[in-house]
Amino acid sequence: MKFSSKLVEEAVEAMSSLPSIGKKTALRLIIHLIQSDSEKSERIATALTMLKSGIKECANCHNISDNEICEICSDPRRNANQICVVETIRDIMAIEATEHYQGHYHVLGGVINPIEGIGVEHLKIQSLINRVNQIQNPELIMALSPTIEGDTTVYFISKQLQNPSIQISTIARGVSFGGELEYADELTLGRSIISRVPYHTQKY
Amino acid sequence: MDSQLYLKEIKLFHFKNYGKASFEFIDGVNIITGLNGVGKTNLLDAIYILGLTKSYFMASDRFLVQHEKKFYRIEGNWIKNSKKLKVAIKYDVIDGKEIDVNGKTGIKPMEHIGQIPIVLISPNDLELVSGLNEIRRRFMDITISQIDPNYLENLVTYIKVQKLRNALLTKSIFFDQLPIDLLESYEIRLVKSGEYIYKSRLWFLQIFQPKFIAFYNEISGGLEDVSLRYTSDLEDEDYFELLKNHRGKDFEKGRTVYGIHRDKMALYIKGQPLQQEASQGQLKSFVLALKLAQYSILQDECKFNPILLLDDIFDKIDASRVGHILSMLSKDDFGQIFISDTHVNRVALLLEELKLNVNFKEMKIENSFENIQIDPLN
Questions:
Q1: Interface predicted TM-score (ipTM) of this complex, two decimals
Q2: DSSP character for B305?
Q3: Nearest to B164 among A113, A159, A187 (CB)
Q4: A100 shares its domain with A132
């Protein structure tokens, strides 16, 4: 792509460095900004600068936060004994959107994968163990990807937590809600049968 | 002959030498003739891919795409239990492979393999008896996977976990001591999948062996002492203990030494290893018996007749053996069969000579260039 202006070229380059934004989309956004009021560009620029300098990582759960401790961890109405272990902050947002969880979180930052060079030391596993050791009757809910890497990470973490008072569970996997059995793939359906749950009439 | 499964029509796009082509088949014996290089084997391979999602001959799909094209597509219109079954396999150089079944996209190979059981017999199969162990393991894997989808799932898991454990072993050099807990988290998965595969192969050999011996004796026309022997690291020792006790050795080698990836299916004749003892003729009979036993086991376990692809069998097998196969095929209530041959009319004459009660259709592929049409998409 050739540009008549070095300024435009630099702006397009910068914008297209973002994920899922190609050169053409970047150019469209930049032209839009050129044709808009300067206030618009200034607001975006300020928001981005403030974001990077102001954003913190929660010292407790490693979620993104404005303060040392994030809003979830500092919310007195939430159950601090319950920790839901997730891979990324996006997973927290997904679980929060369900409005079915009132405990705390812990962001690992990924799963163990020696092929990708992600070892135990690259993840927030030690900080999870430290956290759990300070809680009385902790409950861990493992909400990691249903992959071999996710499963082995769960196994590894549970091996590190030898305290018998810790309750560890993993999120259920299986046929999606409202889905019809006929259309579920065999693998998922097979797992659902193997890891079936007791039926409680009072459950809901 | 009335099969519960047969291929009615196949359409090929940018597959090997076929630009755009379609073929119709009968439920019976389909004889495909033509000179060398017109694409007879490619057509059989395309049918094979519709069932197994992978080529019989090529390790990489990239080499199956027509020269200078970016994708291939194979469409098969099957009839299974009187219902239509439409399978499309598409491979794009960039986007990879996609499997569609009856219009549903994104089918996993694991879900599809076994729906269309297939046995292919080719002149290159001598490798099966003279080649490395790996080839015979793959033979077991391909056969059992078509019977039991859980087998394939465990195999895929095993290979993946093994890779992860090996990567960890190579990186352990940076640690003061071996990461025992982490190794263990991989080992329990290896044990679970490995034991499933071991038990499946054991079961397979048990029912495969008598079939194989019966076919061998039928082909060779005698009573020779032939046998198969399956050996595995898992047979004497608890697999988890085995892995645990050899962590040090594995670390030195940088890979998982013991496991079902070393399993052997050894072949014997008169109590001696086949490779040392057998004549060329005996080797050929061995291959054929292995393949026919594979057909028979799929037939029994899948509850219907598999598709049989016979690629250029006259090339390596003499006429009397071919006649033998053909008469066996008609006797044993075979399903749909595809035979490729360089000679026009040779198979047809043989079928008539043997007075076999089969429907057959011969089609001649004239020249591959006729199939290459100008494609408006490209």
A1: 0.71
A2: P
A3: A113
A4: yes
